[in-house]
Design a protein that fits this description.
Layout (H helix, E strand, L loop, with lengths): L2 H18 L8 E9 L14 E5 L1 E2 L4 E3 L1 E2 L6 E9 L1 E10 L2 E10 L9 E8 L7 E2 L6 E4 L6 E3 L2 E13 L4 E13 L4
Antiparallel strand pairs: 1-2, 1-5, 1-14, 3-4, 6-7, 7-8, 8-9, 9-10, 9-11, 11-13, 12-13, 13-14
Length: 188
């Protein structure tokens, strides 16, 4: 075999080996658990939706029980946790009919229940059938409770409460009494 022919076989083989040796990042995974409150904190407004739990996977403020991976069992998990010290957390978790989306511009280990970070949250469940979202006037409170929750580049585990989540189109104003979200293997 001529050296030119050997070169033609060697170069593509080397390129393929180099491409295969790069590590593929693991898929994002996550879970959330919240208590949708069927009463309104907005004077003159009503909720008219029963109080009910909404969850995907299993997580508490003290334990990561079962985080679901993106694309497994019809689950969608998309997230990014960027920063150093103070982090921007953006996450979306869905397993029909339930979903939650959050965007917290700045949260750190210093944010506890008495000193929460604020941000956006939208939730959908079989009971609500439509998204209910926090408002800019009354954003959700995000915080680390206890010693287990954390926020680091690429991962976040936070508690939250929302004084108002609304479906403005139907004039329903409800709340989220308590909630926990955890995401990992996120963009960073």
């Amino acid at each position: 075999m001529s050296s030119a022919v050997r070169f033609l076989f060697a170069v593509p083989s080397a390129v393929l080996l180099a491409a295969c040796s790069e590590a593929v990042p693991p898929p994002s995974s996550g879970a959330f658990d919240l208590q949708f409150q069927g009463s309104s904190n907005v004077p003159g407004k009503s909720c008219n939706i029963q109080t009910h739990p909404v969850k995907v996977g299993a997580v508490t403020a003290a334990q990561l029980v079962s985080l679901l991976k993106d694309t497994v069992n019809d689950t969608t998990v998309s997230c990014s946790v960027t920063g150093d010290g103070a982090f921007h957390v953006s996450a979306y978790i869905r397993q029909d009919p339930s979903s939650v989306q959050i965007d917290v511009p700045s949260v750190s280990a210093a944010n506890n229940q008495a000193n929460p970070a604020t941000g956006f949250l939208s939730v959908t469940s079989a009971t609500t059938q439509k998204p209910f979202s926090s408002t800019s006037e009354q954003p959700c409170n995000f915080f680390l409770s206890g010693t287990a929750e954390q926020v680091l580049a690429g991962r976040a585990w936070l508690s939250f409460a929302c004084p108002v989540v609304a479906d403005v189109g139907t004039d329903k104003y409800c709340a989220i009494q308590t909630g926990v979200i955890a995401v990992q293997d996120c963009d960073q």
